[in-house]
């Protein structure tokens, strides 16, 4: 659906119990991301015309989300995290009344800030200390998340939860296999074979933690060098905290000075341990990198199905359902030894494999 000024004025006035004003320039559809639609809405109350308020609307694409988790699970994550010290945007309400919308959506507060940290990706060594500070800031928030009492907060209402530290990876893999059965549009034998390999080679977790799932540059909201909101919770899981180190998107930079490494994965794991008391090994992170490649296949299959259901969907879903799916298959096959290892970052993989 399109959020027009006229519709928003009617809907928000109804929802908030007082008349509001919404202008065309107050409506922005977020261009980044391919999991779901995100809209930023500004409005003013007619009783206080000077005060501008901002909220966010989230809903699935018409053909469906790229992520196999449900929209109501995502809303639940924000609602429960709002009861903790983890910085998140406050969940406001869920809407599924067909008299107002043809697709369910939820709203949350808009937190002022930016996902982009100036100069973070600038290779100039002058910014190395800043990059390390940002990495530590992110690690401190992961440590906070991983120490939450997920059971008391009821996160296992939506997320599969292992009963022992030995079963964390097994539960994770089996949940992915169950999701694949729900959305599969074509046979992918590799998915089953890789799942069995991952279960057979699973590490034991140091503890059972709530994990965010999607981390790194582009996922969190900053003001200066401080994270003011953790975003993108659709890949959340309960299990081995190493899972959150398997998809960091530049937040554990490799930094050397005069031939000496001063920051990287092992430094980050040591710093994280100093904050959390949770010891994660590089080997466990490497394992969850392999598991992440299996998840990439799932995303590709889900995105392809969404585009098939609605050919007017976002072009990034087409890319995810084709090239990303292909890369996921190759990297997964490489990870379990079916094909030779493939080196390079995800962008060189994209260039070389298509």
CATH class type of the domain at 5-109: Alpha Beta
The major sheet is characterized as: 6 strands, antiparallel
Mean pLDDT level: 91
**Overall shape:** globular
* Class by alpha and beta content: alpha+beta
Give a structural overview.
The chain has a domain at 5-109: Phosphorylase Kinase, domain 1 (2-Layer Sandwich), CATH 3.30.200.20. Helices cover 40% and strands 16% of the residues. The chain has helices at 5-16, 71-81, 128-146, 150-153, 168-183, 189-200, 265-276, 282-309, 315-335, 346-353, and strands spanning 20-21, 27-29, 37-45, 48-59, 91-95, 105-109, 209-211, 220-223, 226-230, 237-239, 255-257, 260-263. The strands form four sheets. Strands 1, 2, 3, 4, 5 and 6 form a six-stranded antiparallel beta sheet that branches. Helix 8 runs antiparallel to helix 9 (315-335). The chain starts with a helix and ends with a helix. The model is unreliable at 346-354 (pLDDT under 50).
């Amino acid at each position: 659906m399109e959020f027009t000024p006229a519709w928003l004025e009617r809907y928000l006035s109804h929802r908030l119990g007082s008349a509001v004003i919404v202008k065309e320039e107050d409506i922005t559809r977020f261009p980044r991301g391919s999991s779901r639609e995100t809209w930023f809405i500004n409005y003013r109350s007619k009783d206080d015309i000077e005060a501008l308020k901002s909220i966010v609307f989230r809903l699935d694409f018409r053909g469906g989300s790229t992520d196999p988790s449900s929209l109501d699970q995502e809303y639940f994550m924000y609602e429960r995290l709002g009861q903790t010290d983890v910085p998140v945007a406050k969940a406001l309400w869920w809407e599924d009344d067909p008299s107002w919308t043809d697709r369910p959506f939820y709203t949350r507060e808009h937190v002022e800030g930016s996902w982009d940290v100036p100069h973070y990706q600038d290779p100039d060594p002058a910014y190395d200390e800043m990059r390390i500070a940002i990495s530590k800031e992110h690690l401190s928030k992961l440590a906070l998340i991983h120490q939450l009492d997920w059971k008391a907060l009821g996160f296992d209402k939506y997320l599969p939860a292992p009963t022992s530290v030995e079963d964390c990876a097994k539960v994770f893999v089996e949940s992915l296999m169950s999701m694949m059965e729900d959305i599969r549009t074509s046979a992918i034998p590799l998915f089953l074979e890789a799942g069995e390999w991952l279960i057979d080679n699973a590490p034991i977790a140091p503890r059972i933690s709530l994990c965010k799932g999607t981390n790194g540059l582009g996922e969190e909201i900053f003001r200066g060098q401080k994270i003011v909101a953790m975003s993108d919770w659709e890949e959340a899981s309960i299990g081995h905290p190493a899972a959150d180190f398997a998809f960091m998107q530049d937040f554990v930079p490799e930094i050397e000075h005069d031939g000496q490494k001063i920051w990287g994965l092992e430094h980050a794991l040591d710093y994280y341990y100093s904050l959390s008391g949770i010891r994660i090994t590089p080997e466990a992170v490497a394992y969850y990198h392999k598991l992440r490649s299996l998840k990439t296949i799932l995303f590709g299959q889900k995105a392809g199905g969404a585009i098939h259901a609605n050919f007017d969907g976002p072009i990034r879903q087409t890319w995810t359902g084709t090239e990303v799916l292909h890369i996921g298959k190759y990297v997964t096959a490489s990870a379990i030894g079916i094909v030779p290892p493939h080196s390079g970052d995800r962008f060189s993989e994209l260039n070389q494999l298509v």
